[in-house]
Structures are given as C-alpha cells and as structure tokens.
Write a structure and sequence with these properties.
single chain, Rossmann fold, 2 domains, 6-stranded parallel β-sheet, 4-stranded mixed β-sheet, 31% helix
C-alpha cells in the first residue's frame, strides 16, 4: 500500500499574495526550492501525490474560472518539467461561511482515498496553515507544517522544501543487541549522522579506532560491549566486527542510490589503501604485516579478524592493503581509510541501485 502526500497549494507550492487569491500570472510566484526538492521526493520516494486546496468562491464573479486556471496550469507545467505530476488535484470552491464538509479541514473530498487502499498511517499533509494540521488530524495522519512551527503534537515543522525532503527521506539507522556467553554488545548506527560516537569496548586502543571510524565516515555510532576480557580481547573484537557489519547491512537496506568506492590514505610513514564494494558477496583481502603483538590492549592480529567479521556480516567485498613502519600508524591509517571509503560508498545520490543486475 502506498502512502499519500496531501499537498496544499497556496503558501506551500506557491507564495500567497496579500489578498490570498492567485488570479493572474503576475501573482504567480513559486516557493523557493519547490522544484528541486519536490522533484527529488517524486523521483526517489514512492508516494501517491494529491493536491488539496481551498479556492474560496472559485467560479463566481469575485474569482472567475479563467483567472484561476491560467496561473494554475503554468504551475502544473513547471512542476511536470521537474517530474512532479499529481495523481489527483482536489479543489474546493466553497466559502468558509458555507461550512461544507469538502472544505479543508473537512475530508469529504478525500473520502475515496481513505477506504483501506492506501497507507494512511505513513501519509502526510503538507501545508502552511492550522487548517492543514486539522485536516491531517481528521484524516488520521501526520502533518508537515510548512513555513512555521507545527501546533499539534507529533506534527512536524518544515521551514523549507529541503526540510520536507529530509523529513520524508527514509532513515538509514539500525540498533542491534547481541548476547552470547562471551560478549554482550549493543550497537546503534546512523549512516546519515555527523560522526558522533560513544564507544565503550573495554579496550582503549580499539575504542580509539572505532571513534576514528565514526568521525571519518560521518556515521553516528554507539557501541557498548561487556566482553570476556579476562580470557583475552579476541571475542570482544571479533563480535563487535560482526555486530557493526550487521548494523551497516541493516541500515543500508536495499542500497538505493549508493556509490561503490575506494580510498587511500597516508599516515606519516604508513599508508593504507581500502577498497569496498557493497556487492552482497562477503570477501576480505588483507595485505600487510605488523611487527608488534599488541597496541595498547589490542592484539594486532585482531585487526584482520575484526575486518573479516565486519565484511562477512555486512556482506561487502573489502580489500585492505597497507604498509609502513609504526604499527599504531598502520592501524590508524587502515581505520581512517576504511571510514572514508565507507563514507563515499554509503552516500546516497539519486534513486538508482548501482548494478546492472538491479539488485546488490
Ligand atoms: Mg495554504
């Protein structure tokens, strides 16, 4: 079932003049960003598009038909050029004093859409007035109040069409808890975050590396782990790799719009080249050597094991090639390079799945 966007016209798609009536081309003025962002909404997301507008007294001498349709049709033509085509355009012509049920916030005009064939719970009314919020309440969905703060609880505020886009954009997040006899792990990630992290694995150097991963990938990450460190660090590092990989896989969903990338990064005398492909085929190639056994409390042999766990649970192909003298620098270069690589790979651009197979 498709959700619906019920979109108001005046004050939302086009600017509302002082006399509230758009009855000439001179009065037609588009809302900034409406073509770009509503265009992207239509191209990238799957909503049934319905315009719902009150046009007081349309068809009477105070608001003749012709003076309405001329600017209205130009608006539709301009939107169509950006790929925005309304499935339905519903216009109420009554006056407030008529008190008709077809007039927003009344829902008589949209009754045929509320018969169980659409996903109303995930639908939105987008409009600039209090009556748009009431209209949403009467339909049983949420409103996105445009241009000013929402007044009804749970409704959302959009000060621009870019805000509307960001509200509608599916969230790429995941939270996973995993408990075994060896470790208890909670991981929450947001692929579209800003690099914030709260990391607590019990292994200082590993925390530092995971913070680098968040910072340089732009993901928000919260990781807490209570592992059997009295045995050694192995299970903790391995299992965190598994859960982080699983979280990335969940959050990225069907991979719409992502790119597939590689990144190389120097760190003083060391360098790391990382290549990643969200191929759905787990594979790790790990080339390079460490000379120390431990960095802080983190065994260097566990670096490979961490990326192996992550690559398999995220179902990615991952190549890591590194070189240098200082093992701390080498590991840090690997994590940073992986983070940048991931940041490029998960960036969403457009609505295509980047494979000729149509699936990744
Ligand atoms: Mg309006």
């Amino acid at each position: 079932m498709k959700p619906i966007l019920f979109i108001d016209r005046d004050g939302t798609l086009i600017k509302e003049p002082v006399d509230f009536q758009i009855d000439s081309l001179e009065k037609l003025d588009f809302m900034p960003g409406v073509f770009t962002w509503l265009g992207r909404i239509c191209r990238e997301f799957d909503y049934y598009l319905v315009m719902v507008t009150n046009q007081d007294g349309l068809g009477t001498p105070s608001f003749p038909e012709k003076s309405f349709w001329e600017p209205h049709n130009i608006l539709l033509k301009a939107l169509k050029a950006e790929g925005v085509e309304f499935d339905e355009i519903l216009i109420d012509r009554s006056l407030p004093s008529d008190n008709l049920p077809t007039r927003k916030p009344g829902t008589a005009m949209v009754k045929h859409l509320l018969n169980g064939n659409f996903d109303i719970a995930n639908s939105y009314v987008i409009g600039d007035r209090g009556i748009d919020e009431l209209f949403a309440a009467n339909i049983g969905c949420r409103a996105i109040r445009f241009g000013t703060n929402a007044t009804i609880r749970d409704n959302l505020t959009a000060l621009s069409w870019e805000d509307v886009y960001n509200i509608l954009k599916p969230k790429r997040t995941a939270s996973i808890s995993r408990r075994t006899n060896e470790t208890g792990i909670t991981v929450s990630i947001n692929l579209d975050g800003n690099g914030q992290s709260i990391i607590n694995t019990g292994i200082g150097f590993f925390d530092h590396m995971l913070e680098q991963l968040a910072k340089h990938s732009g993901m928000d990450m919260e990781i807490s782990c209570k592992g059997d460190l009295q045995v050694d660090e192995h299970h903790t590092i391995e299992d965190i790799g598994l859960v982080v990989g699983e979280a990335i896989k969940q959050a990225i969903g069907n991979k719409t719009g992502i790119t597939r990338y590689g990144f190389a990064l120097p760190m003083d005398e060391s360098k790391a080249l990382v290549m990643i492909d969200f191929s759905g085929r787990p594979y790790l190639v790990f080339k390079g050597n460490f000379t120390r056994e431990l960095i802080g409390q983190m065994p260097t042999e566990m670096v490979k094991h961490f990326f192996h766990s992550l690559a398999y649970s995220a179902a990615i192909t991952l190549h890591i090639d590194f070189d240098g003298e200082n093992d701390h620098h080498k590991v840090e270069a690997i994590f940073k390079s992986f983070a940048h690589c991931l940041s490029s790979a998960i960036k969403q651009e457009g609505a295509n799945i980047p494979s000729t197979k149509g699936i990744l």
